[in-house]
Amino acid sequence: MTIYDIAKKAGVSITTVSRVLNGKEDVSKKTRQKVETVMLENNYMPSFIARSLVADVTKTIGVVVMDVRIPHYANTAYVAEQELSGAGYHVILCNTGNNAENVRNYVQDLVVKRVDGIMFVSSTFNMMQERPEILALLAETPVVIANGELPIPSACSVLVDDARGTELAVQHLFEGGHRDIVHVKSVDKESARIKQFGYRSAMEQRGIEGRAYLLDTDYGIKGGRDVVGRLLEDGRVFSAIICDEDLTAIGVLKQLADTGIQVPGDVAVVGYNNSEYAEIASPTLTSVDGKGNDCSKLSAQLLCGLIEKRNHFPPLYIQPELVVRESSRTKS
Amino acid sequence: MTIYDIAKKAGVSITTVSRVLNGKEDVSKKTRQKVETVMLENNYMPSFIARSLVADVTKTIGVVVMDVRIPHYANTAYVAEQELSGAGYHVILCNTGNNAENVRNYVQDLVVKRVDGIMFVSSTFNMMQERPEILALLAETPVVIANGELPIPSACSVLVDDARGTELAVQHLFEGGHRDIVHVKSVDKESARIKQFGYRSAMEQRGIEGRAYLLDTDYGIKGGRDVVGRLLEDGRVFSAIICDEDLTAIGVLKQLADTGIQVPGDVAVVGYNNSEYAEIASPTLTSVDGKGNDCSKLSAQLLCGLIEKRNHFPPLYIQPELVVRESSRTKS
DNA sequence: CTGTTAGCGCCTTCAT
DNA sequence: ATGAAGGCGCTAACAG
User: Fewer CB within 10 Å: C terminus or N terminus of chain A?
Assistant: First the structure.
């Protein structure tokens, strides 16, 4: 069923059909009615492909994340999808993992499909900075990167002040009397490095950098458990642990519990992302809210702006907040 | 940069360019090289839109879920995306919520965009059975519904035996000596009703239907907490609780803990979906694995089959498994 | 108010 | 081995 068929059946030209299709004014009531009837009778749906070809607009946006199974990204994907679908766009979901080659392939396919824009979520995708081939592919496409940066004119950023996020955690613990605060990094991306940096400077600012301790581990429950094991083996003195990810913090919580260490009585624990995990854990987990939802929503809006008027916007900044729960609550 | 530009710059016809584009044989080495060089130099990418118009294929599939933020759906979306992208398809993600009107709109837009197929995840979408307008929209599109059913020839199903899933839970608890087993339903969809049904028949089979007790509540931690509150207020005797969703079970776990009831010592708890939540909870949650990943993967494969050769497949069945964890472990 | 005519970018016979 | 021409379904001047 094409516009021609409808035109024939309605006894008018395709132009007229196109007109009623697009709600143009200059069509008589009668013919409009006639055409609309024929359309309905035949269950006609105009081909968006053909329209895209003419208008050079696909009303489709690529949303690129590492892995939607991670709640943080599921959230951002959800928020982005809702925001963008509200603006008339479809969202193509891309799970790249932490693999530059995958990123390249997805980006290429998205560009070939002429998506109207691409949204990258997470500083993981800063990796593209060192892949000129990918940047070249992106040259003509409006791009926004949530909590990351891309050195090309077609890209804009929304940035979360993750250094500040960790500092909030340190401050909270410091005020609770903690001095031997450990920091755990469990993912390899720019924002994780920034969190670590925020920790260091926060410790310095409070004159306790001598008691600072940095640890690296794998993402997840096991990674968190391992880190506690290492701390204990080393006979390290510590009264609080800050993790760069909630799930890793959960692992810490579990291993502490298994070792008979009380939380927050003996050791306080703070996570990052304020994901649903934090509410599920017991004790519930104090966590830095990186405002992922706001970030995602703003990114989506920014992208829409970029697509409509092709000018560049300066980066937007978002401030994190600390959500205190049981795992660090001061006994009072 | 179009095929015409390339043709001109390479001094050949667009046909030739098209040929090298599609790797056809009948082009001399020389011209092929020449054309390829020009393409690279100009960073040419053929428009998939134009190709779609000609081939009537978009290599795009709509994946419709209620809400990707729910881990179960995040998982299925992930698995589907990976499977489908492996087969050369892009995935358009749709979050409909539990709202038929949203479903209608998404479906319409997907059809208008001429996606090659649509995958619905969850029996929630059985709601479409009562919406002939939606079914009409779907008539020409290959469709698969994971754990649900659609009465149209273009649709196929993969079904999980959720009645059996709950029965596994009952059986496990029964063997652990439990008789006063409560069932909690916290979502309103066909599979939840089937789980409830499975519970009832499992109780009957063991001759303890007289001690069966059905409860309804809201999805989530709060819903789970409420249910325990009600049970306690009513002075109901119960030694085990089966929930239709992990998150609700977590709420049950939390409220029991707050009330000083030991799990599994005093009361055993079983969830459903075997989501990551189950590992995070403490005590860790025994849960029925509905094999969501397998279901999603099979659905994706089935859909690809449907798209390639337009014949109908009979429904596939998947058997759930019980994963026993701390929340129901028999003290031994 | 309505119809004719070009494209949009690409693929595909059919000739040469 | 290569090119010319028509068509995929729709929009957009430009004429009547």
Answer: C
Q: What is the pTM of this model?
A: 0.96
Asked if residue B25 keeps its beta carbon closer than 7 A to nucleic acid strand D, the reply is: yes
Confidence (pLDDT) at A331: 60
**A285: part of which helix (H) or strand (E)?**
none
Q: Which of A200, A259, A273 is nearest to A226 (CA)?
A: A259
Higher pLDDT, B330 or A109: A109
Contact partners, residue B283, CB within 8 Å, separation at least 6:
B253, B263, B264, B325, B326, B327
Tokens of B291: 């094999």
CA–CA dist B244, A79 (Å, integer): 26
- The CA distance from B59 to A70, in Å, is 26
What's phi and psi for B182, nearest 5 deg?
-100, 145
Q: Does B68 touch chain A (CB under 8 A)?
A: yes
A257 touches chain B (CB under 8 A): yes
- Number of residue pairs across A and B with CB atoms under 8 Å? 125
pLDDT band with cut points at 50, 70 and 90 for residue A141 = very high
Residue-wise pLDDT tens digits, A2-53: 999 999 999 999 999 999 999 988 889 999 999 999 999 999 999 999 999 9
**Phi, psi dihedrals of residue A33, rounded to the nearest 5°:** -55, -50
Residues whose CB is less than 8 angstroms from the CB of residue B121 and which lie 6 or more positions away in sequence, other chains included: B63, B64, B65, B73, B76, B77, B80, B145, B146, B147, B296, B299
Q: Mean pLDDT of all residues in chain A?
A: 96
